[in-house]
């Protein structure tokens, strides 16, 4: 998937916006776009970045991941 950066974007902000909180997405993005490092931490607006495909979701939430407010 290719996305275009906005003003003041970082790689981790792009990953969060389009893929959510997935382990390893930032590292995969940097491997897929080796020239990103030369732009520094804050990417320029209008840069096209290739993101990894999101992992398929099972749609199930483990009981340990749920928070019970009143037990």
In summary, what is this structure?
This protein is an alpha+beta fold and 71 residues long. It is built from 2 helices and 2 strands.
Name the features.
single chain; alpha+beta; two-stranded antiparallel ribbon
General description of the model:
By secondary structure, this protein is of the alpha+beta class. The chain has one domain (2-55). It has helices spanning 11-19, 25-32, and strands spanning 2-4, 48-50. It has a two-stranded antiparallel sheet with strand order 1-2. The mean pLDDT is 86.
How does the SSE layout of this entry go?
Layout: E1 2-4, H1 11-19, H2 25-32, E2 48-50
Antiparallel strand pairs: 1-2
Helix pairs in contact: 1-2
Morphology call: elongated
The tally of beta strands, per DSSP, is: 2
- What is the element string, with H for helices and E for strands? EHHE
Provide the β-strand percentage band. 5-15%
Share in helix: 10-25%
Radius of gyration: 15 Å
- Give the class from helix and strand content and strand pairing: alpha+beta
**What's the helix count?**
2
Average residue-wise pLDDT: 86
**How many domain units?**
1
Low-confidence stretches: none
Distance between the termini: 42 Å
Strand line-up in the sheet with most strands: 1-2
Biggest beta-sheet profile: 2 strands, antiparallel
